[in-house]
Amino acid sequence: MATPSDRLTHSEHSLPDVSADNIEHNLPVTPPMPHYKGDNYYNYPTQAPELNSSTTNINMQPNPMYQDFQSGPPQRRSSENQVIVEKIKEGNPDAQSPSSNLVNNVKIYERLDSILPGKLSLTPRYSYNPQKKTERDSVYQYLGSIRSDNNQTLDGLPVSLPDSKSNYIARVCLQIFFSIVLIITLFIAVSALVIAMLSLSTSNAQISSSQEIALILEELTPLINANSTYKLLVQNITNTQNSLSSFRNETLQNFSVLFNTPNNCYERSTECLVEKHTTSCSTIPLTFDNSTERLTGLSCVTTNMNGEAQIVLDDNSRYYCYCSITISQEIVWMCKISLWEYMRTVFREDGAYTYIRNLQMAIRSPDEPEAGSSKHHLVLQPSEEIRQRHITRIQQSAPFCVMRSNKSGKFNRHKSIPLIEQRDTDPETLRLVEDQERANYWKRWGPYLSERQWGTVREDYSSDGSCWDYLSHDHARSRAYRWGEDGLMGICDRQCRMCFCLGLWNGKDPILKERLFGLTGPQGNHGEDVKECYYYIDSTPTHSYMKALYKYPMCEYPYSRIELANRESGIGGPEIELEDLGVFKDNKYWDVFVEYAKASPDSICIRISCHNRSNSPATLHVLPQLWYRNTWVWGYQHEGATDKPLLQLLEDGHVHGEHNSTLGKWCLFASDCNGQTPQILFTENETNYKTLYGMEGADKYKKDAFHRYIVNGEKTAVNPNMEGTKCGIYHTQDVDSNSCVKFKLILCSEKEKPNLSQEEMFGAFFEKTIQIRKSEANKFYSRLVYQGITDFKSSLSPDQLEVVRQSYAGLLWSKQFYHYSVKDWLRGDPNTPVPDEARLCGRNADWGHLFNREVISMPDKWEYPWYASWDLAFHMIPFAKIDPNFAKEQLILFLREWYMHPNGQMPAYEFAFNDVNPPVHAWACFRVYKMTGSRGTRDQKFLARTFQKLVLNFNWWVNRKDPSGKNIFAGGFLGLDNIGLFDRSRPLPEGWVLEQADGTAWMAFFCIVMLDMALELAHTHDVVYEDMASKFFEHFIQISDAINQLGQGKGLWHEEDGFYYDLLRINGQSFPMRIRSIVGIIPIFACLTLEERVMDKLGGFKTRLEWFMKYRPDLSEQISGMDTNHEAGYHHLLAIPSREQLIKVLRYVLDEKEFLSPYGIRSLSKAHETAPFVMELDGQTQKVTYVPGESNTLIFGGNSNWRGPIWICINYLVIESLERYHFYYGDELKVECPVGSGNMLTLYQVSIELSLRLTKLFLPDKTGKRPCHGEAKSYQSDPFWKDLVLFYEYFHGDSGRGCGASHQTGWTALISRCFEKLAHH
Fold it and tell me: What is the pLDDT of residues 625-661, one digit of tens each?
């Protein structure tokens, strides 16, 4: 098993670059998968050839990175070239496929040598084709690859002499003779090689630059003359053949870069934002600096793929200019203007690139002008006809794959299939590509700071596991955290080394507002619950732009009142929220917006906007804080331990920070609302032992110093030496009524520190950065999330689009750095008191291998600031739409050996890793696989990689949760906390056995997904997966048969009721738990259609299926079959319910008196409201009744409820299942929806109806009321509230009011998929 440190240097595919950036990129690192498309890699040269003025020798060595390409010679007679071009235009396959006859290319080289004898040295590249190995070897031989005729060496010669003295001497002499001959031969060969190289160099020097250009023109002219738009380029080259410098300069002078809008520009340098970026459609000047041989002035990339220029310039590397130019319908040119210029002809067909020929030319010459700089313009503007032709071709072909250069000037070949299928690449998508390739770490900083680190299991070192009491909210401001940090609307780097958040004080609160407050599990009447009003407004996947809102009351925060009010409300009453206490009355509150915009990966502009919403002036204390997570006092040795870093104030007024990890040196610049440098406070991020325990600590300055300084007026609390590990930028501002003040900060690495004055830095540069990043965020979502097509926008209203946008914002803001090493946590740290030994046998003691230190998607960063494995699986479905690589990495992460238990179990959550969540991980992996690529372009390596580990998890389920071996599974609560009559996770009395319908159905669902994955891999990857497909096929049949067995006490299907129930066996007697809940609906999830046309390609699996159908009639009843009478042929349906059973279950699901609510499917039938299920067990009366809102029991803490409310995650699985059934049954199967309405719908139409009902939860009605906000008046009409949306954990079964965690945008973000389904429908 690899240790966390091993993961820094090991990769399944290649040794990673163990540089500072790579080490800190994401520890532990999930090794990147090579990006490929079908069988063809997107490979590009890593370095341009070294050329100088004395030679134009073009020596292209065979390189495996060119395995998809076949390059031909740049020199040809124009007549011969014309023939080749005509063949290409006529669609001659031999001309279009250079790999069809490699030997002919050798003949071409012979002709080239006859044209320019001794002046050109060429070596052909080749297209990799395993079936043409012999042909390729012949080319190697022709080019000089020496092979031995008999494949024997000198050592292999038979030498056998008698063992006598004379023979021994003879043998030694013979060996000496052969050695001398070998040495002489090698000497002659080396001498000849040196002479040949010198001769070749001398002869090549005779080719002038102008001659080389002339040769290239012979290639280009026939192609370009057909398009008058590009004659200007030819004319420039022709008129300046005598001077390459003139060629370069005149080309620059006659070409200009056109931008439709400023939003098409993707900045990679801060200088671009200061002066060079124009706000109108005009020419942008580019300067060529002859002393440095660099093109300067603009550092951006245009993202317009409509045939216009695409520019890549980077101040940290050589400068490249890429232009995508359509020459004709068949040919796309990509030009690079730099110290070297490459021109490649690329033919694109069905997503595959075929390399036709490679052209190189030097643009350096001896007559370079003297050092200096002059301004030139680059021009490239295709005609409208060419542009439209290019658009059509891009729309019909595979996603465009961008070639990137890294800081060293080398090209990174793509390591995966293109991230996102879209036709018009936008800046944010390019940032995703760069981050995935580790060319630029755009995700180094993000909203990874937790909103609650206090009260968590990982910070709990108590003997009894009382995490809420061990580190409370009141202690959080004074106590250093061990495993993480928290803060108000903050950010941190991906390893949480440096953190930033907001601090506020209204002059009345008893404490400084540095973190969100909420009630703990024991305090709340329905478990833990945050008692604040905050909202996630926006975020891009790379967090290049983020925005959040916090509503801060002007009156004293009612800490005691809100706890008392919830206690009085009791378990039968609703939760009392902040709004219910009147703290926002008369608009006496502050709207505090925080925006983050990245000028570069390590340069972040931060704007804090404070709005006084009241009708009277008020004073606000604002304290943005920057600090280092405490990693130096504990004495641990695992990853992340560092020496104590330092923040200090420099003479020029900015804060300088230095960390001895790979984070390096950082700077914080600040400006108040008047543009002046504000007061800066310093302290240490260390525990205040005196305040907490009455004892002195090592350092004088403590974590709570800012609270004591501002609230208590304790001026000695902060460090007068202006240094420490924590600093605060202190503003005190009087704000008029209905007015706003803004505070600006820039956090950047020392390497990317703007070389600007304070006024310039917080002027045009700052505002332009935020403006552009915000505009790019709009562009990203309009083109990607909304599919970039008009019909999607027109089919969704602005209100619907806003809900989708905020759902993605909440999903992205819910990322969190999560650190937890169970072994170290159990034993304690060297520099801390030794924990109670009872811990070694207590919570999570069986998970000593688990080491978490990654950014992970959380359910809710306050209420659930820890991952839950089945929650995360649902999160990745919407994530796959906006950041597919992150979705894949997260799914792979939970299958890695430092997460998954050696026995195959996946960790549930930190309160009890041994708990069992529903096995939906396989479904998420397969859905992400399908969502992130079209057929033929999907990431098969990702699918194979996850499949192997999921097999281990499947075996764990079979071995641990089917104790009787009868294919009837248990599993405990399975994520449905209080769904049963009693707590299903607790041990049952002796002689009791609970057979769970949901546990068995989940396993059938798991099995059917694994079967589908195996068939996909067998069809597209490797036929050996057919054996695994057969295994999962037969296992599914066994499970399906077990759950459906009819007769007294045998199966879990109740024929009389037409529903699935749990079965309780007590000492041989069987008791069906006749509770109509989501437990009985889950069996319909397990369904899969096997198409004949697919199985025909999998002979082994088809043979096994036919044998099974013929010789196992006792089990083959579980397989439905139908003739579809079209090209697809015969279909087989694998499903738990038969057609009749499905219809019976759906009659309950679609009945508004049972499961169907106006806003989706309830988790418990409404029929139990008047007819609760009652059962006498062990002398006690147990009852289950319909509870549409918050729970009225304390099972699992009482903070969630599965006895009536609507859960979007389950609803989404129902919708997908109905779509799969419709694929098999088609329009032949219709059901009444709603029951009693007489409205007969196909199953697909039912899925659309359910999607429509779910989306109504978040949309305002005619009065402005959104059901998710209940009866809150402020959300209905107040202009400062009505557009804000909260994505709750679950929703009231009747009214749709949001319940539970208010920011559980994880699986509730699935609502975005429902909106998209409606749009497509």
Answer: 999 999 999 998 878 888 899 999 999 899 999 998 7
pTM of the model: 0.72
CA atoms of 923 and 920, how far apart (whole Å):
5
d(Cα 909, Cα 925) in Å, to the nearest integer? 20
Confidence check: pLDDT of 869 > 80? yes
Contact status, residue 280 vs residue 286, Cβ threshold 8 Å: no
What tens digit of pLDDT does each residue of 385-415 get?
A: 433 443 443 333 322 222 233 333 332 323 3
DSSP class of 486? B
For 478, the token pair is: 């004074």
Q: What is the DSSP letter of 808?
A: H
Give me the DSSP letters along 429-481: HHHHHHHHTTSS-TTSEEB-SBS--TT-GGG---SS--HHHHS-HHHHTTS--
Helix (H, G, I), strand (E, B) or coil at 1193: coil
User: 775 — phi, psi (to 5°)?
Assistant: -65, -40
CA dist list (Å): 886 to 359, 541, 878, 1311 = 38, 9, 11, 20
- pLDDT score, position 727: 98
* Residue 905 in this model has a pLDDT that exceeds 90: yes
Identify whether the C-beta of residue 1318 lies closer than 8 Å to the C-beta of residue 1250.
Answer: no
Q: What are the phi and psi torsion angles at 1009 (to 5°)?
A: -70, -40
**Could you give the C-alpha distances from 200 to 55, 56, 58, 116, 196, in angstroms and in order?**
10, 11, 11, 12, 6
Better-predicted residue by pLDDT, 90 or 630: 630
HSE-CB for 626 with a 13 A CA cutoff: 28
Are residues 364 and 339 in contact, defined by beta-carbon separation less than 8 angstroms? yes
514 sits in the region (left: phi over 0; alpha: psi -120 to 50; else beta) called alpha
Q: Are 113 and 120 in contact (CB under 8 A)?
A: yes
Angle, to 10 degrees, between the axis of helix 921-931 and the axis of helix 884-893?
A: 150
**Torsion angle of C-alpha atoms 1043, 1044, 1047, 1048, degrees rounded to 10:** 30
pLDDT recorded at residue 1121: 62
CA dihedral sign of residues 1000, 1001, 1003, 1007: positive
Tokens standing for residue 1173: 């299920």
**Where in 12-139 does DSSP place strands (E)?**
36-37, 40-41
Burial annotation 1151-1181 (CB, 10 A radius, 16+ → b, else e): beebbbbebbbbbbbbbbbeeebebeeeeee
Looking up tokens 């560092």 gives 642
Give the CB-side neighbour count of residue 211, counting CA atoms within 13 A.
13
Give me the chain's average pLDDT, please.
74
Structure tokens at 836: 């109670």
Helix (H) or strand (E) holding 705: helix 705-710
- Tell me which amino acid residue 1099 is: G
CB-based contacts of 1016, cutoff 8 Å, min separation 6: 926, 929, 943
- Alpha-carbon distance of 808 to 702, in angstroms, equals 38
| Kind plus residue range of the DSSP H or E element containing 1248 | helix 1243-1255
d(CA 685, CA 478): 9
Burial class (CB in 10 A: 0-12, 13-18, 19+), 1136: buried
Q: pLDDT value at position 1107?
A: 86
- For residues 187 and 340, the answer to whether their CB atoms sit within 8 Å is no
CA pair distance 564, 523, nearest whole angstrom:
9
Transcribe 730-753 into DSSP letters: EEEEEE-TT-EEEEEEEEEEGGG-
Rounded CA gap, 61 and 58, in Å? 10
- Are 481 and 458 in contact by the 8 Å Cβ rule? The answer is no
Candidate from 269-273, 623-627, 1279-1283 with smallest mean pLDDT: 269-273
Q: Which tokens sit at 1202?
A: 């599965």
Q: Is the pLDDT of residue 349 over 50?
A: no
